[in-house]
Design goal:
Blueprint (H helix, E strand, L loop, with lengths): L1 H44 L7 H7 L1 H6 L1 H4 L9 H13 L4 H14 L5 H11 L16 E7 L6 H14 L4 E6 L4 H14 L2 E3 L7 H15 L3 E6 L9 H12 L4 E11 L4 H14 L3 E5 L9 H9 L3 E5 L7 E3 L2 H9 L2
Helix pairs in contact: 2-14, 5-6, 7-14, 8-9, 10-11, 11-12, 12-13
The protein binds guanosine-5'-diphosphate and magnesium ion.
The site of magnesium ion has 5 residues, from α8.
């Protein structure tokens, strides 16, 4: 009898616990639902995980394969002349540049590779990538911050602007795009597609219009609508009668005049053009007060070491790198992940 009573009491107790738990879950559920969007937004903006080493290894597989021979040198300590020759060849083929290659070789000759060649190279390459990679998002009080994009035709300016617009939107900023490439109508149409896709505002004009006025109008509109940032596209070529660099300097002056303020000028370079990219950059640097490099198409080249040559020779930080054509395929350049993706076993 007593046993039956105890069992019955336990069953009742268990039932009560279950009911209470179900109710408390119900009462918590709406709060959970309310919290979801915020969590999701944070997830999205934290997504530069695309730059994680595994993804980078895949996207940079051509560059990585150049380093195969270095990764396969085993052992620690001093290197034979043959091994040093392999390291030299690999570094030069990957386009890190002669200066960096020579420095790394003399370091290896002098100190050997106490923790293996791959580790020594990792340290040396990382120490060449110490530039300040921060980007400015804020202008002075009452001014609209402008990111200006310059670079020759086909390097990936418009695509990078589209990808960055998405990044800003993900991070909660409202974006106005300025279609300052008025050289051909297709350029503004291409930017318009990105505006639609990313939910950004856009100011464009007809083919042949003055790019300065497009940027000026975009600033007025951005200020009126309270946009957080203006991303301004420019042409990579001009008719023979006008000089491209003069025109860029003029656009920059307009963009930097009230209500605008240029807080970043990105020089966009195509990694697949190798050392040519460096020569192009030198021409632009003087005219355009460049504050950062966007290096595109790293997925399409075996010469990823060009990142190091660019920073070293130009003294300007690579801030973003393009690793594909998709909207998410522009990542903040992270030297550690980059070097790991080339040298990890
Ligand atoms: N594979 C790859 N293609 C890219 C990347 N960035 C841009 N492109 C492609 O390069 C081409 C030229 O880009 P576009 O933005 O029109 O260059 P722009 O003339 O400088 O504006 C387009 O086909 C883009 O899809 C990248 O990071 N990787
Ligand atoms: Mg373009």
């Amino acid at each position: 009898m007593i046993v039956v009573i105890i069992v019955a009491a336990l069953v009742v107790l268990l039932g009560a616990v279950l009911v209470v738990r179900r109710q408390s879950r119900r009462s918590v559920a709406p709060q959970l639902r309310a919290a979801m969007p915020e969590v999701l937004v944070r997830d999205v903006s934290a997504r530069p995980s695309l730059g994680d080493v595994a993804t980078l290894e895949r996207r940079l597989s051509s560059s990585r394969s150049i380093f195969d021979r270095v990764r396969s040198i085993s052992g620690v300590g001093s290197l034979s002349e043959d091994q040093l020759a392999v390291v030299e060849e690999v570094l030069l083929r990957s386009d890190v540049g002669v200066t960096t290659t020579n420095e790394i070789l003399s370091d290896l000759r002098e100190n050997g590779a106490p923790e293996g060649v791959a580790n020594s190279l990792r340290d040396s390459l990382l120490s060449s990538l110490r530039a300040d990679r921060s980007v400015r998002l804020k202008a002075s009080e009452g001014r609209v911050p402008v990111w200006l994009f310059v670079g020759v035709n086909g390097v990936g300016k418009t695509t990078s602007i589209g990808k960055l617009a998405q990044r800003h939107v993900n991070e909660g900023r409202s974006v106005t795009l300025a279609a300052g490439d008025t050289f051909r109508a297709a350029a503004a149409e291409q930017l318009e597609q990105w505006a639609k896709r990313t939910g950004s505002d856009i100011v464009r004009a007809n083919e042949g219009a003055d790019p300065g006025s497009v940027v000026h109008d975009a600033l007025g509109r951005a200020q009126a609508r309270g946009s957080d940032i203006v991303l301004a596209d420019t042409a990579g070529r001009r008719s023979n009668s006008t000089n491209l660099l003069d025109e860029l300097a003029k656009i920059r002056r307009v963009a930097d005049r009230e209500p605008g303020e240029v807080v970043e000028t990105f020089m966009v370079l195509d990694a697949t053009t190798g050392q040519n990219a460096l020569n192009q950059a030198r021409e632009f640097l003087a005219a355009a007060s460049v504050t950062g490099i966007v290096l595109t198409k790293l997925d399409g080249t075996a010469r990823g070491g060009i990142v190091i040559a660019i920073e070293r020779e130009l003294g300007i930080a690579v801030k973003y790198v393009g690793i594909g054509e998709g909207v998410d395929d522009l990542i903040v350049f992270d030297p550690q992940n980059f070097v790991d993706s080339l040298l990890d076993a």
